[in-house]
Amino acid sequence: MLNDPPRIAYQLFILALSVISIALIAVEVLAPVTPEVSRVIGIVDTFICAVFFFDFTQCLIRAPNRKQYMLRYGWLDLLACIPSVEPLRAGRALRATRIIRLLRGLKSSRVLVSYFVAHKAISAFWTAILAGIVSLTFASIAILHVEGPHGTISTAGDALWWSIVTSTTVGYGDLYPTTMEGRLIGAMLMIIGVAILGVLTASIASMLVQREEPSLTEITALRSEIAELRELLRSKQWEGR
Q1: Domain at 119-215, CATH class
Q2: 137: phi then psi, degrees, rounded to nearest 5
Q3: How do residues 146-202 score in pLDDT, each as one tens digit?
Q4: What is d(CA 26, CA 16) in angstroms, rounded to the nearest whole number?
Q5: Where are the domains of the chain?
Q6: 34: phi > 0 → left, psi -120 to 50 → alpha, else beta; which?
């Protein structure tokens, strides 16, 4: 796996999601949150669980021995995909530990930084998606906290919808903050959203260009063929004389 850059970037993304999931659970358990904020956390947690289930299916398909995978790690990964069941959420900490162990080849921050520099496009792609999830989650929680029950944004669904349309700069105007703090949150979310969309667009374009560009091996082979054709043409010219 360490020789597969896209897989490494994806596993780092899953690791970060595991940490975010654990952090959200800790906030919900330890901090005094309102029912609507708890609903936001629940919706985001369900989305993360869906990503975990996709990852579980990918691991199951890729496993050389599926039975052995299920007996060692698969059952735990599957249980960690189930949302809203408190005892099963602890499996995500073990899942994060296992991903760290799988990535043990990246032993130092210098190696990790070198990896991101060498594979900017795929790293930027997953980083932008992660930043989008984090910004939408915390913007939704923050807007519910500052607007309160008397504003236009008073439910979990409204907060998430407002965060999405604001981050994409669509802004339908059906929901809007009425407090100064809420407007500041909206302004910051618009700036972050534009930046994330720009990074996503640039990284996707870069990955498409890299796929279309010929590799160094192909270029070397083409040069060799051109050199052989030149030699053949020269020999034909000498024979013609």
Answers
A1: mainly alpha
A2: -65, -50
A3: 887 777 888 899 999 999 999 988 877 788 888 899 999 999 999 999 999 998 888
A4: 15
A5: 1-116, 119-215
A6: beta
